[in-house]
From TrEMBL, chain A:
Protein name: Uncharacterized protein
Sequence segments annotated as region (Disordered): 83-104
Source organism, top-level taxon: Bacteria
Organism of this sequence: Parafrankia colletiae
From TrEMBL, chain B:
Taxonomic placement: Bacteria, Bacillati, Actinomycetota, Actinomycetes, Frankiales
Native source species: Parafrankia colletiae
UniProt entry tagged with the keyword Ligase: yes
Protein name: AMP-dependent synthetase
Assigned protein family: Belongs to the ATP-dependent AMP-binding enzyme family.
Domain of life: Bacteria
Length: 104, 498
């Protein structure tokens, strides 16, 4: 399933507790998955009977940012979970963020 | 993204960590969220579309900020130091609203149409009541207004800057790592709640998991005592605070051993003060942060390594960077432009323009200037070859003498460079032949004459930039946030010299 994502849209995993919010949209439709299964928008019905694919069970830590260099998609994990994020079957890498000196 | 999201994430991932208050007995992130949700539910049913706050610092500030977000109403912290008439005028512009008030404020306001008052204690009691209803969810969406901040109005009628949830959250998630603070990190907040730094401190600390301790309002002795008592590791100060803090620790000789980082901003920091601070507090990392209310706080930082490199360098260009505000944040763009809006070559002076998700550049009732997302800051500055940004002051303060534009900041920097000068301010006052003439006011520590200071400026800048008159004073007029009151000074100098 392909999804066209907008900034601020929230998605949740269908097989674990992971929830994400879109920080930067992708340049086109993409197949965002968690735990090996397509994600659904928060508030949408979760299809029954799906299971977590062991190949995508590394986990998604709360508060981490992810970025897909290919599509430009960036997202933030607003809830952590047991499944890991991927675009299709390609794992979604963590965003490489250089720490800034604290200014507040 | 939404401020309610930041709080929910912290409550989720850092539930038992202390968020606010003393090491023993402070509120945990989980408790902070429960209380904010209770206050959010109450604010949904209280009258008005907005939530004001006129008070000193207390836990009610963060609770009202997040409670308003959860209630889906803009948070409007208002300057309690305003004279009664101005305060009433601003509150009237905030209506219809529920306003949280500290001691003595209700009496000052009297009856105002569309304004419902609730005391700080009443608000805190709602938050602490385990029986009170809790609101669900984040409270709205990213486009909603999170905060309205009245600008200080040093150059005119105060405007209400609009900060939307997406502006503030974009700033936080791009500059702060979630749960990135060590468990023993503590930030002291002594800037008032109506300052953008007060708002950004609450947001950033929540997201990074850093405990906050608060001073009701800034007083140097109390500040030093609280830093020592609570083993504070991080502090943000405006320029006028730092010198006074250094005076206290120099007098008692006890230092500030727990402190790791001081960030400063909100106005130009005199070089002698920062050099003194670096010498007296060698274990502290200094961060110069430049930002505006309209940009959700910081847009450029000069970090501890930059400070060290500048202080230890023989290269004049690198040394000069101590007077810069560092490099723009990687998440935004900065451009220096001429009066026509055209980018100028590196090194040349112009207006600082900025673009990025955290930049609002929007005012209530005025809207935002659409320049393809770019916000002209009205600050004058330049970028050096290394990408370091220098700020020379407000464009509205530029002096035009006989057709020549000159920025007060440049002349002030030269004056402060004189060993006897502690503070300096330069303004233009009317002149029959030149249109404007350059005059200065200085606070000095040693023996120095007007002629000597004029010679000092003439030796470094062209003679047209040399102040025609210099007034010696015991202090300059600053507002409580360390911003020079140029209009006040200009009027005084005009009376003395025009």
């Amino acid at each position: 399933m392909s999804t066209l994502v907008k900034p601020g849209t929230r998605y949740k995993s269908t097989v674990c507790d992971t929830e994400v919010i879109i920080v930067k949209p992708s340049s086109g439709p993409i197949d965002l998955r968690c735990g090996g299964q397509p994600v659904v928008e928060v508030g949408a019905e979760v299809p029954a009977g799906l299971t977590l694919d062991p190949a995508f069970s590394g986990g998604t830590p709360l508060g981490k940012r992810f970025a897909d260099p290919e599509s430009g998609l960036e997202l933030l994990a607003t809830k952590g979970g047991a499944g890991s994020l991927s675009i299709g079957e390609v794992p979604l890498p963590l965003k490489d963020a250089k720490p800034l000196p604290s200014s507040d | 993204m939404h401020l309610g999201m930041l709080l929910e994430m912290a409550a989720d991932g850092l539930a038992d960590r202390i968020a606010l208050g003393p090491r023993v007995g402070g509120l945990t992130f989980a408790e902070l969220a429960h209380r904010a949700r209770r206050i959010g539910a109450a604010l949904q049913t209280l009258p008005g579309d907005r939530v004001g706050l006129i008070d000193l610092n207390s836990p009610a500030v963060a609770l009202t900020l997040f409670g308003s977000a959860i209630a889906g109403k803009p948070f409007v912290p208002i300057n309690y130091r305003l004279a009664d008439e101005q305060l009433r005028a601003i509150v009237t512009r905030t209506a219809p609203a529920t306003v949280v008030v500290g001691a003595g404020v209700a009496e000052r306001l009297g009856e105002i149409d569309g304004i419902h008052l609730i005391t700080r204690d009443e608000l805190l009691a709602i938050g602490a009541d385990p029986e009170a209803k809790e609101a669900d969810g984040w409270g709205g969406d990213a486009e909603d207004i999170a905060v309205l901040l009245f600008t200080s109005g040093t150059t005119g009628e105060p405007k209400a800057a609009v900060l939307r949830h997406r502006n503030l959250t974009e700033y936080v998630i791009t500059t702060v790592e979630f749960a990135g603070s060590a468990e023993d990190e503590v930030a002291i907040v002594s800037v008032p709640p109506y300052h953008i730094a007060g708002v950004s401190a609450a947001c950033s600390s929540t997201y990074s998991g850093r405990r906050i301790v608060q001073l009701e309002s800034f007083e140097p002795r109390a500040w030093v005592d609280l830093v020592r008592a609570e083993a504070v590791t991080h502090a943000m100060v405006v320029p006028t605070m730092l010198g006074r803090i250094l005076d206290v620790i120099e007098a008692d000789g006890q230092g500030l051993p727990s402190l790791r980082s001081i960030s400063y901003g909100g106005g130009p920091m005199p070089l002698p003060v920062i050099e003194r601070a670096v010498t007296m507090l060698p274990h502290v990392g200094f961060v110069n942060a430049y930002g505006l209310t309209e940009t959700s706080s910081t847009i450029a930082v000069l970090g501890p390594d930059d400070h060290q490199a500048a202080i230890s360098s023989d290269d004049p260009e690198v040394r000069a960077r101590l007077g810069s505000v560092g490099r723009p944040l990687p998440s935004l763009e900065v451009s220096i432009r001429d009066a026509a809006g055209v980018e100028v070559p590196t090194g040349e002076h112009g207006e600082i323009w900025v673009r990025g998700g955290q930049v609002s550049g929007e005012y209530l009732g005025i809207g935002r200037i659409e320049n393809d997302g770019w916000f002209p800051t009205r600050d004058e500055g330049h970028l050096d070859a290394g990408g370091y940004l220098y700020v020379h002051g407000r464009l509205d303060d530029v002096i035009v003498r006989g057709g020549e534009n000159m920025s007060p900041g440049e002349i002030e920097a030269v004056l402060i460079d004189h060993p006897a000068v502690e503070e300096a301010a330069v303004v233009g006052i009317p002149h029959r032949d030149w249109g404007e003439q350059v005059v200065a006011a200085v606070v000095v520590t040693g023996d120095v004459t007007e002629e000597e200071l004029q010679r000092h400026v003439r030796a470094k800048l062209r003679s047209s930039r040399t102040p025609e008159h210099i007034q010696f004073r015991t202090e300059l007029p600053f507002n409580e946030n360390g911003k020079l009151l140029r209009r006040v000074l200009r009027t005084e100098l005009e009376q003395a010299f025009a």
